[in-house]
Amino acid sequence: MRAIINWIIARPERSVLALTGTFVLPIAPALLSGTVMVLLVLAHGAVRGSIFGMAGLVVLALMGLLAQAPVMSLVGNAAMIWALAVLLAGLLAWTQSLVFAVQITVIAAIVITLGIFLVVADPAAVWADLLTQLAATFSQAGLDQQSQFILAQQPHAGLMTGVVVSAGWTFSVVLLLIGYGAYRLVPASNASYGDFRQLGMGRVLAIVLAAIALGATFSGALWLVNLAIVMLLVFWLQGLSMLHWFRGTGRLPLLAFVAAYAALMVPVTAGVMVFALALLGYCDAWFDLRRKMVGKAQ
Fold this sequence. Notes:
The chain is an all-alpha fold. Helices cover 81% and strands 0% of the residues. The chain has a domain at 195-203 and 228-298. The chain contains 14 helices and no strands.
């Protein structure tokens, strides 16, 4: 892996090739290509990374024309993913702290959630309409089972804002973490912004979540319920960092570590696993479990 990373960042044409090549892969193209962009920005700076991105957009446009693919859709999607990656990597380089950068993304997710409820009069109705349109599209394509599944989610349309914002936040932060992890494998990298195993959301965010959850429980206000969903789910990443810490300190067997990741990859168990990690991370934010375990070990 280290040799591949060094090959990518060594020359500009290789960097552009890696950006465009990963974006047209059949598996997780947005995540992989965005990860490459994070790596390039951290290794070469936001300006050079953006130049590589613009060159990559030209290459994608030419590939789309040759393959008679929808060029605007291809280039537009790539531009959004790479711009997000540049923003995230730039934020990390600016704060020089992985923990602080992730906490800023949490605040951004909260602001986005509140903004949706301020701008949209009835988000639940909008989501219900979008689900209906999406189900109709799947049905026209002959995917009746998928269409029925989407229609079955309509009773939960009021919670879709929190779910979608949480999903977008998770994608963004995972993209940043993988790109940063790749950057740390570069021998010439002279900047370290922290260890994922020490990631924490902080007790302030834990207190805010408790207050929001109480307000949502007693008032039933939809905006508070969605905000509580976003706030709770961000703690799953702290729970995941704890798993890495347990593994790094020898407290978690390799088989259990692999099983936990496998559960995250399987749709049937992913939801339960994310919720369990969120609770673990939330408890750590309140009680600083890692520090206490180290203290007892000493």
